[in-house]
Design goal:
Strand content: 5-15%
Keywords: Hydrolase, Plasmid, Signal
Strand order of the largest sheet: 3-2-1-12-11-10-9
Organism: Gemmatirosa kalamazoonensis
CATH class: Alpha Beta
GO molecular function: hydrolase activity
CATH superfamily: DD-peptidase/beta-lactamase superfamily
CATH architecture: 3-Layer(aba) Sandwich
Radius of gyration: 20 Å
Shape: globular
Helix content: 25-40%
Protein name: Beta-lactamase
CATH topology: Beta-lactamase
Length: about 400
């Protein structure tokens, strides 16, 4: 009999090479009118995204909007880039998800372990990682890591080997007392990834694959994509092979890290978003309790940060129209995922912004900011059951300020 780790590895390889499911097998499609949405308002998304592509904002994009358990808008725009003219397909094209890894992998794995009683949010990190007990680090809790209040710096330069990079992360000195202030830090989720590995006895990618993705039917979400998937992967940046993570710290850690490294499709993220809207269950299978999902997605008293997730305070990638209870995250490569429980709505925008313009260079980040915010606003504005808000005369992307 094969050892369990070998079986898990075989499952991971097999699922990463499977053809993408038909889009309606796990998450059905519905006409906008059937879920209280306006098709005409959603159609403005085409103009917003195409305007950005025409301006050289990014080679390609995938957008998915869902409501009441169904996908109502699913489009691919532009091409994979990096020399490939293949069209983006929201069900098949994998993007480097960057910091969406923090919520779709690390926070998701933490939810499972918290729900099972194997991880305590207020436990000191040193309970699981003796290497993380010196001085004030002994007071850093799992909750601190998730809320970016550990006192760790935003990041640091790592080494050429994964083992030495791990040692450097765990040896990083705090820059503030635990809980004292908010500092968005990649190091916090990296350390949490180490905690998850210590508890489960297996790498983060392997655990989250069988504990979350396989159970949800997410067939195209993976760290370190197999070479056979390269024709389906959107270019991330010039000179970087398809499927190689853009983030330097994740690369130094071997491509699997708690803060970045995950690749996936918009279609798979739609399944994950629906799982979050369904408060921890999918198709009658409960992965975590609804109270656990609520705890992870509730904003803290001091700021808009939840546990791993951010909440929408208006502005940024969530636009101005999503509810205050909406939660989501973005990724540096040009990705975003927002979930609005009050409207039973989710919005996914994946782009390869740093892949560069056709003539070279990266477009101003204002292009990306405007598109992500406009798409989120349009999804909210398209909800017309009740008293629909009036449509604005123009969107941010029409003004092209800073483009």
């Amino acid at each position: 009999m094969l050892p369990s780790f070998a079986i898990a590895a075989a499952v991971l390889l097999a699922t990463s090479l499977l053809p993408t499911r038909a889009g309606d097998e796990l998450l059905p499609h519905a006409a906008p009118a059937d879920v209280g949405m306006s098709a005409d308002r959603l159609a403005v998304i085409d103009r917003v995204v195409q305007r950005a592509i025409d301006a050289g904002g990014f080679p390609g994009a995938a957008v998915v909007v869902g409501r009441h358990g169904a996908i109502v808008w699913e489009r691919g725009y532009g091409a994979l880039g990096g020399g490939s003219s293949a069209a983006v397909d929201p069900e098949r094209t994998l993007f480097d998800l960057a910091s969406l890894t923090k919520v779709v992998a690390t926070s998701a794995a933490a939810m499972v372990l918290v729900d099972e009683g194997r991880l305590g949010l207020d436990d000191p990190v040193g309970r699981y990682l003796p290497e993380f007990r010196a001085g004030a680090k002994g007071r850093v809790t799992i909750r601190h890591l998730l809320r970016h209040r550990s006192g760790l710096p935003a990041g640091r330069t790592l080494a050429s080997s994964a083992a030495e990079s791990r040692r450097l992360v765990l040896g990083t000195a705090l820059e503030a007392a635990p809980g004292e202030r908010y500092e968005y830090s990649d190091l916090g989720p990296i350390v949490l990834g180490f905690v998850i590995e210590r508890i489960t006895g297996e790498p983060l990618d392997r655990f989250v694959q069988h504990a979350v993705y396989a159970r949800l039917g997410m067939q195209s979400t993976t760290f370190r994509p197999a070479r056979a998937l390269a024709p389906r992967i959107a270019a991330t940046e010039p000179g970087v092979p398809r499927g190689e993570v853009h983030d330097r710290a994740s690369h130094a850690l071997g491509g699997v890290a708690g803060h970045a490294g995950l690749f996936g499709t918009a279609g798979d993220l739609a399944i994950f978003a629906q799982f979050m809207l369904d408060r921890g269950s999918r198709h009658g299978v409960r992965l975590v309790r609804d109270s656990t999902v609520a705890a992870f997605t509730r904003r803290g008293a001091e700021d808009r940060q939840a546990l791993g997730w951010e909440t929408c305070a208006g502005g940024g990638s969530c636009g101005q129209r999503l509810s205050r209870t909406a939660f989501g995250h973005t990724g540096f490569t040009g990705t975003s995922l927002w979930v609005d429980p009050e409207r039973d709505l989710f919005v996914i925008v994946l782009t390869n912004w740093i892949a560069g313009r056709p003539g070279g260079g990266v477009a101003p980040v204002a292009v990306l900011h405007d598109v992500r915010a406009d798409v989120a606003d349009l999804a909210a504005l398209a909800v017309v059951d009740g008293a629909p808000a009036p449509m604005p005369d123009r969107m941010r992307s029409d003004a092209r300020i800073g483009w």
